[in-house]
């Protein structure tokens, strides 16, 4: 990518992303920092929705099954691609890995994220506590949660109180899955920003996912399901922040060591905080998570730890790009 | 009203509302935009509370059982009335319909809101999915929620797992009610703003109601109740925004078609998001909802989709009034 | 303290606090208002975490078992100490009571807070509804919650459905405790600010505690526990604000009457709102609570009721100190 980046006209950089997930936040931030902005929609209806916003210069309709052409068009436009969960879901991790357009962050990580077992191994490598993973249902001796492979926003996940219930439900399942120990505690998602410009890992925010139907009022009358439909703001007990920061740093180091590339831009660790205040991380995301949308516009509580004024994650990304461009460091951000 | 509005001195406009619900947000926004502000309290104690705030120029104590006199006094003061749920509750929808003072939004809608069946019919007319409504308890074949007529903040609502439980509880009930299918999923309330000035429907924010005791920790030891005592901030999965925006637009069109007047200012659709990500709307409000209070002062995450800086709903209303006054369009806002 | 304060160089004031709880908010606010800032960490690891932030001028490592020396060093630095829950926990209330350094607020209140029965008595004195307190397990005739003495963030608390369950669990307990009636409703924490400068009590914000595991998804598979790990933003039904403000005022008066000193700076009432909208206060804190962290940086919704722009609690404290210093009123803030 550094060859492509070298040919970019730094005065005419565009920021592009797929029209979903965190696109509004990303593109608004980019526009605020003076970049041209491009949204790529998966169909005309969605394109229409995004066209109404003043901060989006162009809305394209893209063919995600063959993303190469779109990638080339982005390069022709001096565009930097900000990947997010919907991008990976739409184009698939293999295309995302190879798309010939400068893409924020460590792309190689996508290979690890595609396999729940490799994900867990990377967290372990980082020295971060993870839930017990059962290789076989016969090992199960307590409550478990079953998760399907791939970022599907929780669709198809289920809990079982024990082995018997699990085995009964597994019979109907045709997809790849992982069985994790079910942890009692509260969910908490930590948003980090890895900054090559400032050489630091920032704890930027936190959220709770809002999942249907488990976060509704079911009175035990319906089977719990875990489909993410929104996010809720959260601040953490301050005495937890040093360990949360430490896990973020350890994760970045483990990625460098094992995956072989440096994290840049937003990433996320997804945890349960148990009632002994220990943190167990059951998932990560190597890029921006939708939970950052909670502070769009007015900025995250933790952003002021690093900057004079509150900033949201879209602005944070744009800020980093602008500073990296000035300092000739764009190749440390984009792969 | 356009006769009254014509006689108003546009340089001395006042913004008035009832001292409750969202009055602080409305009047603070109005003051920020340079309007005189009037709060009308239902008694002296409440008046005292509102008098402490610098952005409220006058606090009146009003006789809500006979609102005409207050309305006339408001007109004498060049005042524009911003209605909200407590206003409708205090003066009653019949008085609100006829009060001789310019009132934000489509007043005729009050007639529809007074009847839960007409409300549901209007949503259906808009092509928005609604829960099944049971005309008689004998039709009930699953979990239901029973709601009383009128905006009572959820008081008296109850759930029943099935027909038998419902019938037992109905015996003690002396008020008008509606029986709705009980939906499994998570509650989500969408705040819209219908702007005659910009000719658009804005998705402005979202919240979750905080209801006592159902959102507390009852461990199944107490019967669930649904009294709204506060609101919690929410952002939605971005892929849901196009459909949420679409429902907002469809609702505005249905109001124009069936009720015969144009929506102007804030309104709200109140929904359950199911675990297949479909949205079912079980209520609406034709005016500002208390959920907008969550972003008072610092502004809503979605406000920056339409404006340079975050804005709260009070500021949004004041902005619209100022621009409409400049453009000679106040009669498109007030009826 | 007024002797010490008289010797302070008002142009070189420092604001100091213990590196935990709400230190980031407090010190960031102080720096924004031009004060020098000092964080005192309980060990080197924590000190390292706080050293990364630009708004903290000095990070010390303190010996909390013997706080006098640190207090004297603070005085030598012209420092004003902002106490919070972790400070009281680390140094103990007896040391906090006597530390020879100007400390924000009414220190004598610490003596009352150390004893759950005295706490309840003070609330009663203020005319604020409190839960029934059982002097003996044999009196118990319904659901109860058992709380340990001292601010432990909810550790060790438990609920019991009735007397029998309670008595069984009490056998294993070796600490001081209080048995309170278990209230059905929703938790709500009110943040107040007592301002000697403006001679008023401000309702500044509200939050909900995020407690592990009770706020997680346990499906009844685990015993509920109540360890605070974070906080969630909340706004209240506006019609509740006058009574919430009134309770805040009554509490301040009761402190003056019974404890003999005037509240200054942040304090908190901690309540359940029942489904008849009545408020029952089960706890208070005489100083800043961690729930104020939810609006760090972007400011609380209620702050704009008193000031032109949103403010967080750290900024609010710094603002008060600056104005008090100008007006020669620091001795009304610090004891």
UniProtKB/TrEMBL annotation, chains A, B, C:
Residues 107-315 form the ATP-grasp domain. One of its GO terms (molecular function) is ligase activity, forming carbon-nitrogen bonds. Pathway: Purine metabolism; IMP biosynthesis via de novo pathway; 5-formamido-1-(5-phospho-D-ribosyl)imidazole-4-carboxamide from 5-amino-1-(5-phospho-D-ribosyl)imidazole-4-carboxamide (formate route): step 1/1. The gene is purP. PROSITE patterns: ATP_GRASP (PS50975). It comes from Pyrobaculum oguniense (strain DSM 13380 / JCM 10595 / TE7). This is 5-formaminoimidazole-4-carboxamide-1-(beta)-D-ribofuranosyl 5'-monophosphate synthetase. ATP binds at residue 211. It catalyses: 5-amino-1-(5-phospho-beta-D-ribosyl)imidazole-4-carboxamide + formate + ATP = 5-formamido-1-(5-phospho-D-ribosyl)imidazole-4-carboxamide + ADP + phosphate.
């Amino acid at each position: 990518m550094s060859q492509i980046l070298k040919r970019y006209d730094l005065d005419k950089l565009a920021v592009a992303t797929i029209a979903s997930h965190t696109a509004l936040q990303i593109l608004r931030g980019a526009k605020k920092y003076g970049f041209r902005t491009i949204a790529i929609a998966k169909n005309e209806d969605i394109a229409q929705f995004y066209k109404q916003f003043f901060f989006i210069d162009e809305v394209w309709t893209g063919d995600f099954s063959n993303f190469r052409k779109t990638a080339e068009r982005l390069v022709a436009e001096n565009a930097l691609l900000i990947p997010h969960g919907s991008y990976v879901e739409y184009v698939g991790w293999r295309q995302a890995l190879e798309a010939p357009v400068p893409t924020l962050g460590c792309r190689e990580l996508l290979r690890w994220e595609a396999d729940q077992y490799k994900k867990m191994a990377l967290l372990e490598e980082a020295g971060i506590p993870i839930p017990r993973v059962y290789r076989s249902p016969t090992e199960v001796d307590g409550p478990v949660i079953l998760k399907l492979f791939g970022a599907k926003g929780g669709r198809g996940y289920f809990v079982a109180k024990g082995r018997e219930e699990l085995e009964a439900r597994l019979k109907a399942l045709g997809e790849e899955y992982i069985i994790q120990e079910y942890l009692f505690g509260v969910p908490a998602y930590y948003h980090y920003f890895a900054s090559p410009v400032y050489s630091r890992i920032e704890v930027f925010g936190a959220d709770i996912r809002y999942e249907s139907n488990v976060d509704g009022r079911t009175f035990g009358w319906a089977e719990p399901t875990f489909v993410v439909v929104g996010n809720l703001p959260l601040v953490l007990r301050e005495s937890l922040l040093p360990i949360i920061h430490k896990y973020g740093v350890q994760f970045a180091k483990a990625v460098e060591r094992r995956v072989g590339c440096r994290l840049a831009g937003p990433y996320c660790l997804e945890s349960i905080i148990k009632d002994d205040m220990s943190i167990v991380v059951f998932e990560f995301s190597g890029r921006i998570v939708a939970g950052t949308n909670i502070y769009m516009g007015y900025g995250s509580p933790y952003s002021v730890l690093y900057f004079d004024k509150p900033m949201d994650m879209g602005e944070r990304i744009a800020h980093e790009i602008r500073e990296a461009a000035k300092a000739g460091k764009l190749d440390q951000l984009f792969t």
